[in-house]
Automatic annotation (TrEMBL):
PANTHER family: OS07G0285900 PROTEIN, PTHR32141. Residues 2-70 form the F-box/LRR-repeat protein 15/At3g58940/PEG3-like LRR domain. Residues 89-130 form the FBD domain. Coiled coil: none annotated. This is FBD domain-containing protein.
Length: 141
């Protein structure tokens, strides 16, 4: 394990396999999780879609995340309809996640539902920042 690791990133799907102690992540999806890494406070990643299921899976690996940075790569077919199950809580959403930064935010449905998940479920969220991408105007802002 990496007992002093506090910042982890830039994770992307191009990393075919990442092994940290007993945590195995393949293409952004946790495969084996016998222990969690509580020392990581900042997570930066690239998410295709953005893919909420993939990101939530990573949050389970690193339950003490305080800041989440997501570089989004838009994909039209993403649904992001995941509902938060209070009977299967995600620790960082309940206790730790204070900041979410969404880069390459286009304001399209997958982006909006991704952001909405964190607004509705991160109980200690203090700030969410959006890095606009593409063509925008004052009305869009």
């Amino acid at each position: 394990m990496a007992p002093k690791l506090t910042v982890l990133g830039y994770l992307s799907k191009t990393i075919s396999e990442l092994v940290i102690g007993t945590i195995i992540i393949k293409e952004m999806i946790p495969i084996r999780l016998t222990e969690v890494m509580r020392t990581v406070k900042v997570l930066a990643l690239e998410s295709i879609g953005p893919n909420l299921d993939s990101v939530v899976g990573l949050l389970r690996c690193f339950p003490c995340i305080e800041k989440l940075y997501v570089q989004s790569c838009f994909r039209n077919d993403m649904k992001n309809v995941r509902q938060y199950d209070t009977f299967d809580p995600i620790e960082c959403l309940d206790l730790h996640l204070k900041a979410v930064v969404l880069n390459a935010y286009e304001g399209k449905t997958p982006d909006v539902t991704f952001a909405k998940f964190f607004v509705l479920n991160a109980k200690v969220l203090k700030v969410m920042k959006f890095g606009a991408y593409g063509t925008w105007n004052n009305k869009w802002m």
